[in-house]
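# step 3/5: fold
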Amino acid sequence: MPATFLIVPEWQGSSSSRAMRLIDGAEAIAGDLPASALRVEVPLGAGEPLETGLRRYSSVAEAHRNLRAALDEHAARPGALEPVVVIGGDAGSDLAAIARAARTHPGMALVWLSAHAGLRSPRPGADGAPGGVALADAVLPAVLGDGPAPPAAAGPERMAAERIVLAGVRALDDDGLATAARLGLRLPEPEAADTGPTDALVRALEDLDAASVYLHVDLDVLDTSAISAVDDPEPFGPDVDELTSTLRALRSRFETAGAAVTGFAPADRAAAERDLPTVLRILGALTGPLS
């Protein structure tokens, strides 16, 4: 499947003390992408909260604006390849791409593949990291009605909560569960007739009458045995075979409105080289031939 890759090495949304590793991770992936891959400028500085309650908010907002401008420029090019696949840093680095895809693909569902749901609210006592509230604070500001909305989420492109399906999530506290239930987010559970979680995911999307899907893949969705170069690893996730099989199954059933791979945070070159083949397999499942 032809695709356009956008490199967005945003790190400021991460709550990790090792967040800047996300820059190296995005650049490592970029080295194996076609020369036509586009780069989106991300501020060098950490940024300021600007009375939002979110650390580094000013830099995150600027990165969102730059990605939105890159998407506008791409859409204006004759013969521009679709879909757009964002190679991110932190989990919120593709929010402008999600917003654009929602506007240009009526009936789209967002599949959020991550060990972490990103549903913490930016309130006193929370960590205040934009990546930790990526869904609740940026994709769904109109639904929640609280917290700052980055420029990426402004306007008619906002996602409706009930069209978001969480998959692979296993680090979900009581606050996150309550938020998911209140908003009507989908957390598909396999039924007796299912052969595995992929069946449950497909069924959830069919229940939504999804015409297309945006596939957000944070690499921490994988089991700790499958990848080590992530900020916040969680055990008991899928292996790379299971994940790539799921991605191909979704692509074969639904149009791909867009995609992202985020969260690659190698500690050094050796770690990047060790885990990069896994990342490239995931990219192949998102963009390669289905047969």
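# step 4/5: annotate
Residues 122-126, 140-156 have pLDDT under 50 and may be disordered.
# step 5/5: archive (pending)
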